[in-house]
């Protein structure tokens, strides 16, 4: 399979991951039951001093969610841009790095979050690493 197609598949998977994460990040404080509502209320109302500022765990949680939206969008864009630059000297380095990162991210998502997010990241990582493998095979066939 062509590396370009594999990287575009990985990019689309990460865009879907970003959309799901965005929905979760924007609605994390919509509690499904009274027990969770009590925890969320505590996260949003208990303030403490951190680095000279009064904050809550809810602010931290929201901030990490918003930052991760940006990171996921950056990964999506990088995969798409790499798909168009298979002959670039940086292709192998960035493709390998992103592939390994996505596989590790999938493992962490499986342990700390849920399987669906992990599967999406794992598939994107496998597609990315496969693109690197097929790039080498395609370039040796043309020589």
Explain what this protein looks like in three dimensions.
By secondary structure, the protein is mainly α. It has one domain. Helices cover 79% and strands 4% of the residues. It has helices spanning 3-27, 34-45, 57-83, 91-112, 115-141, and strands at 48-50, 53-55. Strands 1-2 form a two-stranded antiparallel ribbon. The longest helix has 27 residues, at 57-83. The two termini are 18 Å apart. The relative contact order is 0.18. The mean pLDDT is 92.
What keywords describe this structure?
mainly alpha; two-stranded antiparallel ribbon; 5 helices
Q: Helicity range of the residues?
A: over 70%
Overall domain count:
1
Q: Note the overall shape.
A: elongated
Distance between the termini: 18 Å
- Point out poorly predicted stretches: none
- Strands of the widest sheet, in order across it, are 1-2
Q: What's the total helix number?
A: 5
Largest sheet: 2 strands, antiparallel
* Series of secondary-structure elements, N-terminal to C-terminal: HHEEHHH
| Total number of strands | 2
What is the residue-averaged pLDDT? 92
Strand content: under 5%
> Any idea what the radius of gyration is?
19 Å
SSE inventory with pairings:
Blueprint: H1 3-27, H2 34-45, E1 48-50, E2 53-55, H3 57-83, H4 91-112, H5 115-141
Antiparallel strand pairs: 1-2
Helix pairs in contact: 1-3, 1-5, 4-5
Quick overview:
The protein has 143 residues and is mainly α. Helix content is 79%, strand content 4%.
